[in-house]
Amino acid sequence: MSKDCIPRKAHLEDVKAIHALLLQAAKKGLLLPRALIYLYGHIRNFHVVESPESEVVGCCALAPVWEDMGEICSLVVREDMRGQGLGRALVRACVSGCRELRLKKIFSLTYQESFFTRLGFNVVDKDVLPQKIWADCVNCAKYPDCDEIALFLDVSELPVRKLASKNCR
């Protein structure tokens, strides 16, 4: 893995590239699409990773959901860049942001269960996420028959150095 793989906070000029990545994944049924206006309004939640050619090839967001809980969402790495630790680095960047926001718990609704369990997340019943369900899920086309898996991580129990890790591997 190149040392250039360290994620950075997204900028407004990254929105169209993030939108393209998310749209491509949404067309394959891997996640829900996000409108451009949503992305502009939530750009502060996003981290991106770039190729050596300075193209945005991956993104991930940490979205606060409740006073002590956040969601890891919109995680995508371009297909030709997968398997290099970029997704792991993006999630770690978001987890590191939990300290700044004073979030104690994070979750993800995903189809990528094994990816998240390798990062220390545990499968939970969606019933432990009532704030997410009532704020967002009730407006989703898949509700109430969502087939995504809920995964949870208590970040308050992680050592500071693990949260702060910027290494890709």
Describe the structure.
The protein has 169 residues and is an alpha+beta fold. The protein has a single domain, classed as Gcn5-related N-acetyltransferase (GNAT) (Aminopeptidase, 3-Layer(aba) Sandwich), CATH 3.40.630.30. It has helices at 15-27, 36-41, 86-101, 113-118, 130-135, 160-163; strands at residues 8-9, 46-50, 56-66, 69-77, 105-110, 122-124, 149-154. It has a 7-stranded mixed sheet. The chain is globular, with a radius of gyration of 15 Å. The model is unreliable at 163-169 (pLDDT under 50). Keywords: Acyltransferase, Transferase. GO terms for molecular function: N-acetyltransferase activity. It holds the Pfam family Acetyltransf_1.
Task: Furnish the topology, listing elements before pairings.
Layout: E1 8-9, H1 15-27, H2 36-41, E2 46-50, E3 56-66, E4 69-77, H3 86-101, E5 105-110, H4 113-118, E6 122-124, H5 130-135, E7 149-154, H6 160-163
Parallel strand pairs: 4-5
Antiparallel strand pairs: 1-2, 2-3, 3-4, 5-7, 6-7
Compute the average pLDDT: 84
What's the arrangement of strands in the largest beta sheet? 1-2-3-4-5-7-6
Globally, the shape reads globular
CATH topology label: Aminopeptidase
Main sheet specs: 7 strands, mixed
Helix-strand string? EHHEEEHEHEHEH
Give the termini distance in whole angstroms: 8 Å
- What is the count of β-strands? 7
Strand content: 15-25%
* The number of domains: 1
Helical stretch count? 6
Q: What's the CATH first level?
A: Alpha Beta
**What is the CATH architecture term?**
3-Layer(aba) Sandwich
CATH superfamily: Gcn5-related N-acetyltransferase (GNAT)
Structural class: alpha+beta
The low-confidence runs, each spanning 5 or more residues with pLDDT under 50, are 163-169
Compute the CA-based radius of gyration.
Answer: 15 Å
Helix percent reads 25-40%
